[in-house]
Design a protein that fits this description.
single chain, about 400 residues, alpha/beta, Rossmann fold, 2 domains, five-stranded parallel sheet, about 15% strand, binds nicotinamide-adenine-dinucleotide
Length: about 400
């Protein structure tokens, strides 16, 4: 542990206490003087309750930016989604930069962890911070960018053991950020040569997955037409050293299905289209409708009057239902015939609010019999679920 950083009067404010910000806050709070801020009052109440239950101080969590006025390092973990037209929704970042301006003091550092397009930190966030604070960038305050790489629902790859990319607006700030993250992360901390390089690195990681899944989705259709299994083909191909094993699937969530749009928008503004990446995005986006069509066809073929969809989250073994394709499928089919959607893991309030649909979360709410059961998400919890006399189909069969 670097002792100097702990004696250097650092006080950290973590802004946005969701999937990314909260684990970061928890780790940092063991080593540093810290405050956590989230504008969602319910989230703060929930976190305060859980802190109290663990015997931790809940006083350090707030919705009020003024309470962060003693902090000199801010780490920003707010959402970066897309608007309906798939352009980047930068409003949360904009709000943070405007609010921070009121409390930023000379010598402070702002580190962004939210996923953003290359150039966003310096071209979008910095001017907002300068305007709102009346301080001069790289003279009075400094910035850094360190993309988060956690994988929701994946205990093996946690914040502490994923190599962390860091970048900063000058060497001294880079050193400060290095020392700060080294004190909580066991994996290597990698210094990128510039903020834009770090931003582009995160983009590339996620866009690569989007493109590879699109390839797997397209190849799955080819295999199906040839009457062979994509899974068997993938397994054999994986025995070659340089084959990247990626399964076909629905691409939802707040990361892969969203970040590619950030890149496409940036490219369009700077120099033009990225046809391969655009095509991959379209392939993955249209997969949802195709799966819904297949379920409709199956329901007709089986004369099914009641259908159960298993899973509402965007991927297995998580409660996260943001941009969930399973929910979209439920949305498409609901009303056409009797469709129930069951997911014991989801944050039901968040879903019901957003989709105005009733996702069942308690197995007791299920009917005695469904004519067709389709597993859209592979939660381990579903293994023990047994609904007698129902035809069962897995998403893999539909892809
Ligand atoms: N969840 C992941 O696995 C993951 C992984 C890598 C990167 N990311 C990126 O990290 C960022 C955060 O993602 P997340 O999953 O933690 O989102 P989240 O929705 O779980 O959490 C974000 C939190 O920020 C709060 N917030 C919104 N606007 C705010 C504001 N103006 N001031 C203060 N708080 C505000 C929200 O209330 C919410 O609690 C995004 O850019 C995302 O793309 C997420």
């Amino acid at each position: 542990m670097n002792e100097s950083i702990h004696n250097s009067g650092i006080k950290i404010g973590v802004i946005g206490l969701g999937y990314v910000g909260w684990p970061l806050y928890v780790l940092l709070s063991r080593k540093f003087s810290i405050l956590g801020l989230d504008t969602d009052e319910n989230r703060i109440i929930k976190l305060k309750n859980s802190e109290q239950q663990c015997g931790e101080s809940a006083e350090l969590l707030t919705t009020n930016y003024k309470e962060l006025s003693g902090c000199n390092v801010f780490i920003v973990c707010v959402p970066t989604g897309v608007n309906d037209d798939k352009t980047p929704d930068l409003r949360p970042l904009q709000k943070v930069c405007n609010s921070l301006g009121e409390i930023l003091t000379p010598g402070s550092t702002v580190v962004f962890e939210s996923t953003i397009f290359p150039g966003a930190t310096e071209e979008f966030c910095v001017p907002l911070l300068e305007n709102s604070s009346n301080l001069k960038f790289n003279e009075d305050f400094y910035v850094g960018y360190s993309p988060e790489r956690i994988n929701v629902g994946d205990d093996k790859h946690s914040l502490e053991n994923i190599p962390k990319i860091i970048s900063a607006s000058n060497e001294k700030t880079l050193e400060l950020i290095y020392n700060l993250y080294s004190s909580i992360i066991k994996a290597p901390i990698i210094k990128a040569s510039s903020i834009k390089v770090a931003e582009a690195t995160k983009m590339y990681e996620n866009v690569q997955r989007d493109v590879l899944i699109a390839l797997a989705n397209e190849y799955a259709e080819f295999c199906k037409a040839e009457g062979i299994s994509i899974h068997e083909v993938t397994d054999y191909a994986s025995s070659k050293w340089n084959f990247s094993k990626v399964n076909p699937g629905l691409v939802g969530g707040h990361c892969i299905g969203v970040d590619t749009y950030y890149l496409l928008n940036r490219a369009n503004q700077k120099f033009g289209s990225l046809p391969l990446i655009q095509c991959a995005r379209t392939i993955n986006e249209t997969k949802t409708e195709k799966v819904a069509n297949k379920i409709r066809e199956l329901a007709k073929r089986f004369g099914a009057r009641s259908v159960l969809l298993l899973g509402a989250t965007y991927k297995a073994d998580t409660s996260d239902c943001r941009n969930s394709k399973a929910l979209e499928i439920y949305n498409i089919l609901n009303g056409e015939f009797t469709v129930d959607c069951y997911d014991p893991l989801i944050d039901a309030d968040r879903v019901r609010e957003g989709h105005r649909l009733q996702v069942l979360t308690n197995p007791k709410e299920l009917r005695d019999k469904y004519d067709l059961v389709v597993r859209l998400v592979n939660h381990a919890d579903f293994e023990s679920l047994n609904i007698p006399n129902s035809k069962f189909v897995d998403l893999n069969n539909l892809l």
